[in-house]
Specification:
CATH topology of chain A: ABC transporter involved in vitamin B12 uptake, BtuC
Helix content of chain B: 25-40%
Largest sheet of chain A: 2 strands, antiparallel
Number of strands of chain A: 2
Helix content of chain A: over 70%
CATH class of chain A: Mainly Alpha
Order of helices and strands of chain A: HHHHHEEHHHHHHH
Number of domains of chain B: 2
Strand order of the largest sheet of chain B: 6-7-8-3-9-10
Number of strands of chain B: 22
Structural class of chain A: mainly alpha
Shape of chain B: globular
CATH class of the largest domain in chain B: Alpha Beta
Oligomer: heterodimer
Distance between the termini of chain B: 22 Å
CATH architecture of chain A: Orthogonal Bundle
Chain lengths: 323, 529
């Protein structure tokens, strides 16, 4: 994104304009944030900082996983909320076999769910939006059917899971998990063959095919990772709320997509990074927190988030188009 | 053009027949400069185009040709300098301005809408299509222009997507003629055309200048420059080197102007290379058939031998290579690589078998334009440049440097996006990813020098020869006779998806190959030239 290249004519002028607009926008955001931070009572406190980070973690883990799909040029997954919810349910239910088994089984399930969707997209060229909407419906149906529509609660004799939601050195465990998995994925995307090939695939699918890149495998990997990360977040969500049902689906899908977009990743793939998404997730959490403290209604919070997402998407899209 | 039309944009002073040698000047560019960031694309360039002449612009890739052309059609605004059209200083802020003045561009990336009919395309976006659409009169006009371009057989209602590339190009020209453009800029117009189609374009061009219009002809094909043009301006490094009447200059001088003396001398060296082949059969193609495109093609490709597939656009040469690259899943027939049969239904399989295909459309299918040159060069060998899936960054950098050096791409550009390179350098990057690649049995190059200038072309040919010398079998397709005769050790001529002849280059003659390429000896529709 930041690389400078020689461009021509109109495109150059447009680009200058898009860059300028983006800079202005960032400046406005910065001013509003600083102003908000200074004038919102209770915002600039340690405990509020922790609250922001904690809130950012659950969505952030899902969002950085989703970023691999975005970078691979496969748009988004619309099944993330459902994956998170059933992962939470499966985790709490499998706790009867012990914490380690529950974590492993849940992550494995997440990986498989994602891999199957990735296979449909990669091998058959199915549209990722349609595939993931279908998968979301399937998962909801299965979850209702198997749980008889009831909430899952952890077995009463098992308490080891509670540690997952509790603070360690003052910060809740999910924050550490968020940081660690983000760093791991950032390194994977930058330093591994898989990561490099994902960028190339997202840049130009036709050329990737002609260059004999393993498109199916890469797509399976992208969706697998996104789903694996989502399952990981689902475990933390389950452990934190100690009770899991489809109500948890909530707005995770939308929030994760919003984080990836606000971070400025190219919707068309090939350009962007894990760090951008992580920053996007933290930014959104910050704004939401500020609005909450200032007494905005839920509707108002969603509205402001929506506006931020739309403006960033328009601006980054303009930039991409003029490259 | 039909005579009853007299569009408002035409000034009264225009006379239908103008003697080129004393003619007035239609276009004057004075001290035009343009920089893109630190790159000075054009430096105080001055040039004039006379009424009723075909004026050639020649130059190496990066000489500033395309910047000049873009400035003339309002896609680039000059940093400095003045453009005068018909004696008046004009400012071209966008393509619309250019069109309003009667300046029109035909380039390789055609702007036709494939789904629409020929007629709709001709009038699409026209400034002088009246609000009340008088279809019949427009149709007659379109018809006469198409006829003039030799497209008598094309119906107005035919959708453009059913036309050949060459025909589309002519439709594009028709579109500009209908608009009564006074200065036509033809940017590499013949790159994708067959010989009869080129003849038609040339004839149409001559008719146009006879009517008092002017044409700027940008081409790498020097033969065409000498055949068609009245004057030639040579650009190098963003500056004008010389302008000559065409009869004052010979080919050698022109090339020297384009390349500078040193390189010119090198480019003129005769390519007398002995056939280096070891004669070992690497790839055997047996009865390759692709429905509607290729029929019963059987070929043997030997290590160290460069085989050239000569054929017009649409003759099937490209499809044969694509099939070898695993990109044509419905191909039938058998392909053996080093004696082993391989199933070529995916590019992965083809590449695993050692068949390396490089597409002809480098922008769409060849390169990852937004990614760095380094990433583009190393895409084919990431496996060897990583351990346990982790990229070895030092080795990647070293490999990219070696490949860039070999391919003749500046090391400074390794970090730049491929999109920022000129066409010739992009092609070198594409070729670079196939160089020195372990396990490559066959290099299949689809139009390896399409849209590349003389100097770049010579470089690319040398790279291909080096690859062959190291024992790789090479097969390439080309629509250009010069290229086939220059590069191929064995010339295979394809017409309508079938092999017409297979001739060692020593025995190949240009006229025989041309005859094989253009006719099936019996049936010919347009063989009047």
């Amino acid at each position: 994104m930041s690389s400078v290249m020689a461009r021509v004519g109109i495109e150059r002028r447009l680009l200058g304009l898009a860059d300028l607009a983006l800079a202005v926008w960032l400046a406005i955001l910065a001013v509003v944030t600083v102003y908000g931070a200074a004038t919102t009572t209770g915002f600039l406190t340690v405990s509020n900082g922790k609250a922001i980070l904690t809130a950012a973690s659950f969505v952030g883990i899902i969002a950085v996983g989703l970023t691999v799909i975005v970078l691979s040029g496969n748009l988004f997954s619309l099944a993330l909320g459902q994956t998170a919810a059933i992962s939470a349910m499966v985790f709490l239910w499998t706790l009867q076999w012990g914490l380690a088994a529950a974590i492993l089984l849940t992550l494995l399930l997440g990986l498989v769910i994602g891999a199957v969707q990735g296979f449909a997209v990669g091998a058959w060229g199915a549209n990722p939006i349609i595939v993931t909407i279908g998968a979301a419906g399937l998962m909801e149906g299965m979850a209702v059917w198997l749980s008889h529509g009831q909430s899952i609660i952890p077995p009463s004799n098992e308490t080891s899971w509670e540690r997952l939601g509790q603070p360690v050195f003052g910060l809740p465990a999910p924050v550490y998990v968020f940081i660690v998995v983000t760093v791991i994925l950032a390194v994977v995307m930058r330093r591994t063959r898989f990561g490099r090939q994902i960028y190339l695939l997202g840049e130009n699918r036709v050329a990737a095919r002609a260059a004999a890149l393993p498109i199916t495998l890469l797509t399976v990997g992208a969706f697998g990772i996104a789903s694996l990360y989502t399952a990981g977040s689902g475990i933390l969500i389950g452990a934190t709320s100690a009770n899991a049902s489809l109500l948890l689906v909530g707005s995770y899908t939308y929030d994760a997509i919003a984080a990836a977009l606000v971070g400025g990743n190219a919707v068309t793939g090939g350009r962007g990074s894990i760090a951008r998404t992580a920053a996007g997730a933290i930014f959104i959490a910050t704004i939401s927190d500020m609005l909450l403290l200032r007494g905005y209604s839920t509707g108002g919070q969603i509205l402001v988030r929506g506006i931020i997402v739309v403006v960033v998407v328009v601006l980054t899209n303009l930039r991409e188009r003029t490259r | 053009m039909s005579d009853e039309r007299d569009p408002a944009s035409t000034s009264g002073s225009r006379s239908p027949l103008v003697d080129a040698s004393v003619a007035a000047v239609i276009l004057e560019v004075v001290d035009f400069s343009k920089s893109f960031g630190p790159v000075r694309a054009v430096r105080s360039l001055s040039l004039d185009v006379r009424v009723g002449e075909v004026h050639a612009i020649c130059g190496h890739n990066g000489a500033g040709k395309s910047t000049l052309v873009k400035a003339l059609v309002g896609l680039v605004r000059p940093d400095e300098g003045v453009i005068r059209f018909d004696g008046q200083e004009i400012s071209l802020r966008n393509p619309h301005d250019a069109q309003a003045h009667g300046i029109a561009l035909v380039n390789q990336e055609l702007s036709l809408v494939p789904e629409l009919s020929v007629e709709d395309n001709i009038f699409l976006g026209g400034l002088d299509v009246p609000l009340v659409y008088r279809r019949r009169r427009l149709s007659e006009h379109a018809r006469s222009v198409l006829d003039q371009l030799g497209l008598r057989h094309v119906q107005l209602g035919t959708s453009v997507e059913s036309l050949s590339i060459g025909e589309r190009q002519l439709v594009e020209i028709a579109r500009l003629l209908v608009r009564d453009a006074r200065l036509l800029i033809l940017d590499e117009p013949t790159a994708t055309l067959s010989k009869p189609e080129i003849e038609r374009v040339f004839k149409a061009t001559r008719d146009l200048v006879a009517q008092g219009r002017s044409v700027i002809f940008v081409s790498h094909r020097l033969d065409e420059v000498f055949e068609l043009c009245d004057r030639v301006t040579v650009l190098r490094d963003g500056q004008r080197v010389a302008t000559h009447e065409i009869h004052e200059i010979d080919r050698r001088t022109l090339i020297e102007h384009m390349l500078g003396e040193m390189e010119g001398a090198r480019a003129m060296v005769d390519h007398e290379h002995a056939v280096p082949g070891s004669g070992e059969t690497v790839v055997r193609i047996d009865r390759l058939t692709v429905p509607g495109s290729v029929e019963d093609v059987s070929l043997t490709l030997e290590s160290g031998i460069i085989t050239g597939l000569a054929g017009q656009v649409g003759s099937g040469t490209s499809t044969i290579l694509r099939a070898l690259g695993g990109l044509v899943p419905n191909a039938s027939g058998t392909v053996e690589v080093r004696g082993k049969k391989v199933l070529l239904n995916t590019p992965r399989r083809a590449s695993a078998a050692g068949l390396l295909y490089l597409p002809n459309d480098r922008q769409r299918e060849g390169l990852f334009l937004g990614q760095s040159v380094e990433r583009n060069l190393t895409v084919t060998r990431l496996r060897r440049l990583s351990r346990l899936g982790v990229l070895l960054r030092r080795r990647i950098q070293r490999a990219a440097r070696e490949l860039a050096t070999m391919a003749g791409v500046s090391l400074d550009r390794l970090g730049s996006p491929a999109a920022s390179l000129s066409g010739g350098n992009q092609q070198k990057v594409l070729l670079g990813r196939a160089l020195q690649l372990e396990g490559t049995a066959l290099l299949a190059l689809d139009e390896p020098t399409r849209g590349v200038d003389v100097g770049g072309r010579a470089d690319i040919h040398n790279l291909v020869r080096d690859a062959a010398r190291q024992g790789t079998a090479v097969v390439f397709s080309s629509t250009e006779l010069d290229e086939v005769l220059d590069l191929a050790d064995v010339v295979v001529t394809i017409f309508h998806g079938r092999i017409v002849s297979i001739v060692p280059r020593a025995e190949a003659s240009a006229s025989a190959i041309l005859a094989d390429m253009t006719t099936s000896h019996a049936s010919s529709t347009e063989a009047s030239s």
